[in-house]
Write a structure and sequence with these properties.
By secondary structure, this protein is of the alpha/beta class. It is about 40% helix and about 10% strand. The chain has a 5-stranded parallel beta sheet.
Length: about 260
């Protein structure tokens, strides 16, 4: 019995270890929800009070190398929501060249809200831009991807900060649903989905929309942002670092969400 138990534990340990060593490199593309500050020539600011989700994910995967190419404010095209023509997802992809083993490299993509947060753009174009960026990454040698949909940004405190923003809530909710529906169809449609035309790649789909809805529904978080009011914030009290971005405690939960999806 002891030998059987030992064998089972050894197999479980080896399986988990092998899994944890699958990826030695993570290349992250995105906006302020992924941006970890100006590191290695990438990023604007770390819009939270600690690590961002991809840094937590790397620890969970025992992955030693993160190439974080996300820029706060990035759109899905080449540009930024403030209007300049660089920092966007496709710009990030164009600046990247694969120098690592493709089988040991995970690409993460979480992008889109800066296209339609102000009810000015069609999310159909956002999905086309993401498809274009994915194709370019595959052409560069990419094989393994984690792709996020978007959470309902109107859950954040920013849309309650003024009457101007409150008026946008119904439209932004609808645009988020359209984006998510069209993104999922683009990736997984049984006839024309992306994975149908690229059967040799792996896409892990991260449903951040449902995750954030559940998190807000099942907890009573403060209606004010933390903003560094004291050094050790209570993660059960504060969800929002500022009006738009979650606390690092939420980023940790997001990292765990992605980690669990990677196991499937």
């Amino acid at each position: 019995m002891k030998n059987l138990l030992f064998s089972f534990l050894a197999i479980a340990f080896l399986s988990e270890s092998a899994y944890a060593q699958d990826f030695k490199h993570i290349v992250a593309f995105g906006d302020s929800f992924t941006d970890n500050g100006y590191i290695d020539g990438h990023g604007f600011n770390r819009d939270t009070n600690g690590l961002v989700w991809v840094e937590y994910l790397a620890k969970m995967l025992d992955c030693p190398n993160i190439d974080n190419r996300a820029w706060g404010g990035a759109r899905t095209d080449n540009g930024h929501y403030l209007g300049f023509d660089w920092s966007g997802f496709n710009w990030q992809v164009d600046k990247y060249n694969l120098t690592t083993n493709p089988e040991e490299t995970l690409y993460t993509i979480w992008i889109g809200v800066n296209d339609y947060w102000d009810n000015k753009d069609d999310p159909s174009n956002s999905v086309k831009n993401i498809k274009n960026g994915l194709n370019k990454l595959i052409d560069k040698g990419g094989k393994h991807f984690a792709v996020f949909n978007n959470f309902d940004l109107t859950l954040s405190l920013g849309y309650e900060s003024s009457e101007q923003y409150r008026k946008l809530i119904p439209a932004v909710k609808e645009l988020t649903k359209r984006f998510n529906d069209q993104l999922h169809s683009m990736l997984f449609d049984s006839e024309v989905g992306f994975i149908q035309s690229h059967p040799d790649i792996t896409i892990h789909f991260v449903d951040i929309y449902t995750f954030m809805n559940d998190l807000v529904t099942n907890n009573q978080f403060s209606k004010t942002p933390w903003r560094g009011t004291y050094q050790f914030p209570d993660p059960n009290k504060y969800l929002w670092y500022d009006e738009w971005h979650p606390m690092t405690s939420c980023h940790k939960l997001i990292g765990e969400l992605v980690f669990e999806e990677m196991k499937k």
